[in-house]
Amino acid sequence: MLLSTTEIRVRYAETDMMGVVYHANYFTWFEAARIQLLDELGLPYRELERRGYLLPVLECQAKFILPARFDDSLRVQVLIEELPVARIEARYEVQREEHTLATGRTTHAFMSPEGRIIRPPKEFSTKAFAAFDKTKGPI
Predict the structure, then answer these.
(1) Is 16 a known active-site residue?
(2) Which of 64, 68, 95, 105 is deepest in the core (most CB within 10 A)?
């Protein structure tokens, strides 16, 4: 399992007229968590792109439980439970203190710049396998 937590402070511009975070912002936060996870793995997304590997979103989903509001301090946790081969499924949980505000899921595939699904680079697989071996327990 791969696990990472990102801290987010809700900006005023992320809220709607009701003072609640606009739903699409959660997907931006999910992305921030994924990027941090790749950084922690030692393979930043920018480096993967430089090498010709893309990770487009194939599917995304979110469930909103409680509202987030301006100036809230949030934790966005991303979890990858299965060792990535060509596809990656990531799960997310957005929390304020002990309260879960939203959960979500995204599916990605490693693709070439020409749009072909490809295997991840060997270095990614090696680092992901090593990280999977070191982690224990659910989100």
Answers:
(1) yes
(2) 68
Residues 57-85 pLDDT 10s: 999 999 999 999 999 999 999 999 988 88
Q: How many helices (H) and strands (E) does the chain have?
A: 3, 5
Q: Are 36 and 6 in contact (CB under 8 A)?
A: yes
Pairwise CA distance, residues 72 & 136, whole Å: 30
What does DSSP assign to residue 86?
S
Three-state secondary structure call for residue 127: helix
> 16, 39, 71, 133: which is the annotated catalytic residue?
16
User: What's the start-to-end Cα distance of the chain, in Å?
Assistant: 9
Q: Which residues of the chain have pLDDT under 70?
A: 133-139
Query: How far is the C-alpha of 55 from the C-alpha of 64, rounded, in Å?
Result: 25
Are the CB atoms for 46 and 36 separated by under 8 Å? no
For each of the domains in the chain, give its residue range(s) and CATH number, in order of start: 2-134 (3.10.129.10)
What pLDDT digit, counting tens, does each position of 1-10 carry?
A: 899 999 999 9
